[in-house]
Amino acid sequence: MRRRHVVVVALGLVAFVALASPAFARNRDRDRSDRIISVTGDISVPRGHTVDGPVATADGDVDIAGTVTDFVIVGEGDVVVSGRVTRGVLVVHGNARITGRVGGDVVALSGQVVVTSDGSVGGDVVSRREPQIARGTVEGEVRRVDLRALFTGLIIGTLAYLWLAVTLSVVVLGLEIVGLLPRAADTAAAAGKRIAASFGWGALVGIVGPFVTVLVLVSILGIPLGLTMLSALNVLAPIGYVTTCLIVGRTWVKGPSNRARIGAFFAGFGILRLLALIPGIGLLVWFVACVYGLGAASMAAWYGGHLVRDTPSTPDAPPPDPPTAPSTAPDPDPVDAPIG
Asked: The dihedral of CA 242, 243, 247, 252: what is its sign?
């Protein structure tokens, strides 16, 4: 009899566990969720609820009464933490009020951070406005952030990076052109002596060209051609800049040797890169140099193509003159040779 009761009780317990486990699982899943990310709208994590992941919203307030196992990030809005955030809190434009526990940093880029006596922060507190911190609630540092200095440093750093990147790129391209195409470099430098014509050609290719490209892109059938034209302009602009460096450098450094060409390039390059450091005119110098050099390179290519086309190559062409004894006079500087 007792054995029968034991068996019945055991079967009952097994049935209870089997039926209760899914219910417990459902309750546990109901109290847990993955990350919560919203573009607009408020977010609330109620007490007893756990979010396994970040909580973020671009525009809205966030109220954390439960637990968040990652960061809490708000673009436009306020944050109130009365529960627990295991990592950090970031508010771009708004305030942060901590009455619970934050394991990492709390940052309010344009607002204020308030930590009450019931709250605690395991990292630093960074606030745009004067933070209100209860004694002994922050384990790290408490400091204010100066957005003006931050953005100024960011802009200066970005400009310095761009200047260095352009400088190194132009050096590599210039050495390749001078080393691989010395005759073309000399011809372009000589063409640059015609200043008005160079600017005219450069405006035609570098200014009118983009407008034509935009008109081509308007039509669906012209999109591939327009994209190709834009890609070509991205390549031609640095070539124009390198050509201007050669033209400017040839004013002082002359000679037909590769050493003279390289010296001329670096002389003009140094002058243009120093001018690029002057605030307010760096982009203007780049634009003018690209247009001018692109015009000179275009003229050199035009005249070079016509000279090659006009050279007789038929069997009836007169034979070349017999070779003469070499002259002891120095060769003329190819840069001073006439164009056209």
From this structure: positive
